[in-house]
Design a protein that fits this description.
By secondary structure, the chain is mainly alpha-helical. It has eight helices and three strands; from the N terminus they run αααααααββαβ. Strands 1-2-3 form a three-stranded mixed beta sheet, with helices on one face. It is found in: Membrane.
Length: 337
């Protein structure tokens, strides 16, 4: 029994020695690759955490100022302030959705959702669009009613103070969000830009009405202008959502340029059945058939590495599905359009 055990132990040591000798040359390379991969993963996790902290801080500031503007608008009688509070409500919604989408995007893919939950941000953006459309219609309706029917005088001092607070808050939120790239965060950024303009307009309007008491109509007119900004942001978001759901080519990419770059890789004769689409903000996918020289068919891995490297380096496309075929491939099993 002990002899058999010693013999097995010797065999294991022998195999281990062979593995060490056989793998010594590639050990450093593999270790470096694993180290780089781990470093990249750690950096990505750190960036995601920082992004969620910025979004969270922006959401807290937005919600606080939203309540202040709503209360201040009600106490002062300013529809413009109430309108801006409504706009900030949609900003808070967009930021909240961006936070939820970022959390969902970090969840791993499974057998049912092979891309994970990255499209959650698109669903969130759709909800945001609906809220923007309803809000813009309500503000416009209230503004027209105020233009037709005189209301109580506006408390301009309170209106100006709340608008100034809103302006400072919006500038700070813009600073928080300037480095964000997700769909909902960018939509919120655009809304906050509009809010910043609105706050400046409300301040100027309060000053003008203080100097000229007969300019009370400025308040509902400013409200209509804010409603127009909300509607413009909603339309832009609708177009972006539509492009994603229709799996359109991302606006910053040119199919001809991508195809040409792939064909310039050694061994590739032509590219066909090329599709490029957006999965979620910053995540682009590509599928294509690569026609290669017959004498290059034994270098499939080298060709794939070269093409994928160019796609990642030149166009930022990380998710690629490539089929290699020779010039003699007859396509008899392909779907005929």
């Amino acid at each position: 029994m002990s002899h058999g055990h010693s013999h097995g132990e010797s065999a294991r040591r022998h195999r281990h020695g062979i593995e060490e000798a056989h793998g010594a040359a590639g050990h450093d390379h593999e270790h470096g690759h694993d180290h780089d991969h781990a470093s990249a993963h750690a950096l990505g996790a750190h960036a995601a955490g920082a992004s969620m902290r910025r979004l969270g801080a922006s959401l807290v500031v937005t919600a606080t100022v939203m309540v202040a503007e709503a209360v201040g608008g009600w106490l002062s009688g300013s529809l413009a302030l109430v309108s801006d509070a409504g706009h900030m409500l949609t900003d808070a919604g967009a930021l909240g959705l961006a936070l939820v989408a970022a959390w969902l995007a970090a969840r791993p893919a499974d057998d049912k959702r092979t891309f994970g939950y990255r499209r959650a941000e698109v669903l969130g953006a759709q909800l945001n669009v609906g809220a923007l459309l309803v809000l813009s219609i309500w503000i416009a309706w209230e503004a027209v009613d105020r233009l037709r029917t005189p209301h109580e005088p506006i408390k301009l001092g309170l209106m100006a103070i709340i608008a100034a607070i809103g302006l400072v808050a919006n500038v700070s939120i813009l600073w928080f969000l300037h480095g964000e790239h997700s769909l909902n965060a960018r939509s919120a950024f655009l809304h906050v830009v509009a809010d910043t303009v609105s706050s400046v307009a409300i301040l100027l309007g309060a000053g003008a009405m203080a100097l000229r008491p007969g300019l009370e109509w400025l308040d509902p007119v400013l409200s209509v202008a804010i409603a127009g900004l909300i509607l413009w942001g909603a339309l832009r978001l609708i177009l972006e959502i539509t492009d994603i759901l229709m799996e359109s080519v991302p606006k910053h990419l040119d199919v001809g340029c991508v195809c040409k770059e792939m064909e310039c890789c050694a061994g590739v004769i032509a590219v066909h059945d090329l599709h490029i689409w957006t999965i979620s903000s910053g995540l682009y996918a590509l599928s294509a058939h690569l026609v290669v020289h017959t004498d290059a068919m034994g270098r499939n891995d080298d060709i794939l590495n070269a093409v994928k490297l160019e796609l990642r380096r030149r166009f930022g496309i990380d998710h690629t599905t490539l089929q290699i075929e020779s010039a003699d491939y007859a396509h008899v099993h392909d779907y005929q359009h």
